Amino acid sequence: MKQVQMTKLPVYSFETAEAINQLRVNLSFTDQDCRAVVVTSSLPDEGKSFVSVALWRALSEVGKKTLLIDCDLRLSKLMERYGIIAETPLIGVSHVLSGQNDWQDAVYETDVINGCIMPVTSIVTNPSILLESRRLGRMIEEAKKQFDLILIDTPPIISVADALTVCKNADASIMTVRSGKTKKSVVKDCIKRLQMTGKPVLGVVLNRVDTGNHHYGYYYYGYRNNPYISEEKK
Ligand SMILES: Nc1ncnc2c1ncn2[C@@H]1O[C@H](COP(=O)(O)OP(=O)(O)OP(=O)(O)O)[C@@H](O)[C@H]1O
Ligand SMILES: [Mg+2]
What is the CATH number of the domain that holds 48? Predict the structure, then answer.
């Protein structure tokens, strides 16, 4: 398999590493069939990409063969943010979805043992059409045969339908919510939209919590059995 280097992988604070580890453990309690999990949120900047990458690393580091698929075909920042470099021009998700390449051609091993990525390598003019292609579902199903877990980073739900389209083709989703910023009504509306895809929302990650010492924290709420967005608050 081809390789990329991730030259800017961050070192997480103790609190962040702990919270992500908790999220990883919670994920392991879910149904065995939930192996392709979408990470999404209502609005931009809620930490979808941050949580996707941190969780992907945590899963890989405990020996799970994990694939991170970047499905933010509009504004992906992963290549730049994590300093992803390779010796040859990269084939990415849009090459696969447009039928130019097989899905395996866009999968790269990384510096993270057990962790592979499928990056966005080019800007496309028609992301929605690409994501609506049957190739997306096929690609995820094929990848599930070779990976223990697949995490899929997406754009925010409020502005475009992309995340919901991806969710339909995955097994489940996790919502990130920016603490102190995103309105509860917006979160609830987006959870309803996610549920309309027929796939379970596994939980909500309350992200970017100001813990007072400049560390951002996370709290994870199992959506089904946690009072965070309970029936009486709906
Ligand atoms: N828990 C966290 N700890 C530290 N920094 C964070 C955390 N969550 C997010 N950030 C930072 O906040 C910014 C926005 O996060 P990120 O890009 O992951 O959001 P996003 O929801 O993926 O945004 P977009 O909708 O544009 O894709 C980034 O600079 C990221 O590094
Ligand atoms: Mg993002």
Answer: 3.40.50.300
Determine contact, residues 130/76, Cβ cutoff 8 Å. Answer: no
Total domains in the chain come to 1
What does the pLDDT average to over 83-91?
A: 92
Please tell me the distance from the alpha carbon of residue 135 to that of residue 133, in angstroms, as a whole number: 5
**Ligand 2 centre distance from Cα of residue 46 (Å):** 8
- 140 lies in which domain range? 5-233
Q: Which ligand is nearest to the CA of 209?
A: 1
For the segment 175-204, what is each residue's pLDDT rounded down to a tens digit? 999 999 999 999 999 999 999 999 999 999
**CB-CB contact of 82 with 53 (8 Å):** yes
Whether 43 is in the pocket of ligand 1, judged by its Cβ within 6 Å, is no
Ligand 2 centroid – CA 48 distance (Å): 5
Alpha helices in the chain, H assignment, sequence order: 14-28, 48-61, 78-81, 93-97, 127-132, 134-146, 162-169, 184-195
Query: 52: CA distance to ligand 1 center in Å?
Result: 10
More confident residue, 222 or 126: 126
Using DSSP bridges, classify how beta strands 84-85 and 66-70 pair: parallel, antiparallel or unpaired.
unpaired
